[in-house]
Design brief:
By secondary structure, the chain is mainly beta. It is 2% helix and 43% strand. The protein is built from two helices and 68 strands. It has a 17-stranded parallel sheet that branches. Strand 54 and strand 55 form a beta hairpin. The longest helix has 6 residues. The radius of gyration is 36 Å and the shape is elongated. This is Organic solvent tolerance-like N-terminal domain-containing protein.
Length: 714
């Protein structure tokens, strides 16, 4: 018979199970291990170990006392079974270490209890139950209270555990780190602990099978806390997903719930944790009071269609999910690659506070007509795949909510039923963050409406990290991994009461930007269109060896090659000065040379689509002024470069005549340069002012010539 160190009762020293009051149960003759049972009272006054192969069964309604600073250890392949009604009173800093199996099998009306022996206990009176790789913990109708960590599961780590007949130390120990741990915890209560369940992944990815369901968590500082150090070794996100559905977390407030569940949350970049599925949580202590349409991490299988449609060959028959009704995303959730999710007509999807919904690359999300997407405070939708919004869809956003596009967003409304992006409250014009695009993103808005955002549409194309080329002898340039242009196609869309309706931040040397912003209405925005150029400069790498690339945000980069097409829009005024004041672009006359060129010529003079101010010029000459059969003054000037201004024209924004262009202002015509505006004539360009033609200048306007002016009036 095996012997154990420790004592139960006042006897101390080495003793057998029998001498401790544990009687052997019937064994088969070939058995090498023994079964023991304890009844009535069991006093553990010093460290006690159940060895491999042994099984201790504690009879129903037994009272166990674990002394202060004392540890009960269950070795690998050892088992401790607690029948119903067992009470374990534990002294300060007492603890239980499980390398084998612990089964606490209480009854609904006769629960097992692990509790502090103190008359006025705190939430950290005793250490709790520590579990290690390969261990099994089964709890049914069990209550654990007043522990530092009621359950502390150590997974994915190298654990030293004692061999038979040794104390827990680092001498004569085995190493095991490749066994799956199991946590099967149901119908149990965790009360007044510092941390109810703590799952810690160390060094390497752990293996954990968890079913933590139908439990109650009350008055714990943390109900469920997870952490992962595997990232420190350069590993990706842990494959472990903790199944914690159908529990009562003492609240129905998802924000408060998140504060007590520490899991991976993309919103705050906390990836040093594990993923926890606490969807379908209960709304009260009653087991059947479950919020059935709440989910997180991934789309639930019950939403998968049996006969899905095939929109694209890449989307197979197993990938279509339909959300028909009202749904809540309770925690960070991903629509996975090649999944198609459809929010059906008049259905509603709410993204809870501080939560992120991510569309992976090749994933698609379609909102059918009349569907509603509600973004709670500080929530986000990250679109790496494709998001399609149809007529009448509403996106309602609370303070701090944001939509991030690195894939594509298509919002296609109609003139009578727009796609509407709006704030939940209209008290201020900065209520939600707006739609933000990164390099390579595509946005297509047609008959949409965006209101009360910090930036309605923000193309933030300034890279946070710029990588120099590896060859120190080569010229320095950015290492651009994705040369796909960023595309903004925005038409027939209203921007109302935003701080900045559209904002464009770019590095022209490194990025391609395609824009068509036409026939839109800009109303009551602080700034209708804001542009900013950040030039790229290369120099040493900061360690004295040279070869570093970085962004210099202070020096301006005039004459960006990017021109923003923003014609035929209503800018909330028909006065050129008012329009220019709400468009922050390249304006040389006033020294603003760190903006982009914006072509807002032929602006609308009212909200009527056909009320266009013709003969207005910005940035460059329009193609309709090009002469089909120009005369040739010089062989260097080819037949495609003559433009004729045969009427009265107004230059409403900084404009230049390009190299090798011939521009003729015809007899009887007038060209007016508006206030604070510059007309630049490039080298090798010719500007001909015919007899009887005239040029007039507004306040602080300029005519800057590096080419040739031929004035036939003199």
């Amino acid at each position: 018979m095996r012997t154990y160190t420790g004592s139960i009762s006042s006897f101390t020293g080495w003793m057998t199970m029998a001498s401790l009051g544990l009687t052997s149960l019937a064994l088969t003759p070939s058995a090498l291990a023994m079964d023991y049972y304890a009844s009535e009272q069991w006093f553990i006054q010093q460290d006690f170990t159940i060895d491999a192969g042994d099984r201790v069964i504690v009879a129903a309604n037994t009272q166990i006392y674990l002394n202060a600073d004392t540890k009960l250890t269950i070795n690998p392949e050892a088992v401790l079974i607690l029948e119903e009604g067992v009470n374990i009173d534990i002294g300060q800093k007492g603890s239980i270490a499980v390398y084998g199996e612990l089964s606490s099998l209480g009854h609904e009306y006769n629960m097992n209890r692990f509790q502090s022996v103190q008359l006025a206990p705190t939430n950290s009176d005793w250490q709790g139950i520590d579990t290690y790789n390969g261990s099994v913990v089964n709890l049914r109708h069990t209550q654990i209270s007043h522990a530092s960590n009621a359950i502390y599961a150590h997974i994915g780590t190298t654990i030293l555990f004692p061999n038979e007949q040794t104390e827990l130390d680092t001498h004569d120990s085995e190493i095991r780190n490749d066994h799956t741990s199991q946590l099967n915890i149901r119908y149990s209560n965790f009360n007044n602990n510092h941390t109810a369940i703590n799952i810690s992944e160390q060094h390497t990815f752990g293996q954990l099978e968890s079913v933590i369901q139908y439990n109650q968590f009350n008055d714990n500082q943390y109900h469920l806390y997870t952490s992962s150090q595997a990232h420190n070794n350069g590993l990706q996100m842990s494959p472990v997903i903790v199944d914690a559905r159908f529990n009562w977390w003492s609240t129905t407030d998802t924000n408060r719930l998140k504060q007590q569940i520490q899991d991976t949350q993309e919103n705050n970049q906390d990836t040093h944790a594990l993923r926890v599925d606490y969807s379908h949580y209960r709304q009260s202590i009653y087991d059947n009071d479950i919020l059935t349409n709440a989910f997180l991490l991934q789309l639930p299988l019950k939403l998968k269609r049996d006969d899905p449609i095939t929109i694209d060959p890449g989307f197979n028959r197993e990938s279509h999910y339909r959300l028909d009704g009202n749904f809540l995303i309770a925690g960070d959730t991903k629509i996975k690659p090649y999944q198609l999710a459809t929010l059906t007509t008049n259905s509603m999807l709410t993204v809870s506070e501080n939560t992120t919904l991510t569309l992976d690359k090749t994933a698609r999300f379609i909102a059918e007509p009349g569907a509603v997407i509600y973004l709670s405070k500080n929530s986000q939708i990250n679109v790496q795949g494709h998001w399609q919004l149809t007529e009448g869809v509403q996106v309602i956003a609370e303070e701090g909510a944001q939509i991030n596009i690195s894939g594509s967003l298509y919002a296609q409304g109609t003139s009578t039923n727009r796609v509407n992006f709006s704030a939940a409250s209209h008290l201020v014009d900065q209520n939600w963050q707006g739609i933000q695009l990164s390099q390579g993103a595509e946005i297509n808005l047609n008959y949409a409406q965006i209101q009360h955002a910090q930036q309605g549409v923000y193309a933030n194309l300034v890279p946070s990290i710029v990588n120099p080329v590896e060859d120190n002898t080569a010229s320095i340039s950015p290492d651009i991994s994705d040369d796909q242009p960023t595309s903004l196609q925005i038409s027939h869309t209203r921007f109302i009461n935003n701080h900045q309706a559209i904002r464009l931040d770019v590095v022209p040397e490194t990025q391609a930007l395609e824009t068509q912003i036409e026939y839109n209405d800009f109303v009551d925005n602080s700034t209708h269109l804001f542009t900013q150029v950040y030039p790229f400069h290369a120099y040493g790498n900061g360690n004295g060896n040279g070869n570093e690339a970085e962004l210099n945000l202070s020096e301006s980069q005039p004459f960006s090659p990017i021109v923003i097409n923003a014609k035929f829009n209503w800018w909330d005024s028909n006065l050129v000065s008012d329009i220019a004041a709400t468009i922050i672009d390249f304006q040389q006359a006033v020294g603003h040379t760190d903006g982009l060129h914006v072509d807002y010529s032929e602006y609308r003079q009212s909200m009527a689509l056909n009320d266009i101010a013709r003969n207005t010029l910005v940035v460059k000459l329009p193609e309709y002024l090009k002469v089909s059969d120009p005369f040739q003054i010089d062989p260097g000037y080819n037949l495609e470069t003559e433009y004729r201004l045969e009427d009265d024209f107004v230059i409403v924004g900084d404009t230049h005549f390009s190299r090798y262009q011939i521009v003729t202002l015809t007899t009887g015509s007038n060209l007016h340069i508006s206030d604070d505006i510059s007309l630049s004539i490039s080298p090798n360009a010719i500007f001909i002012i015919e007899s009887g033609a005239s040029i007039t200048f507004g306040h602080n306007s300029q005519l800057l010539s590096q080419g040739q002016i031929i004035d036939q009036n003199h």
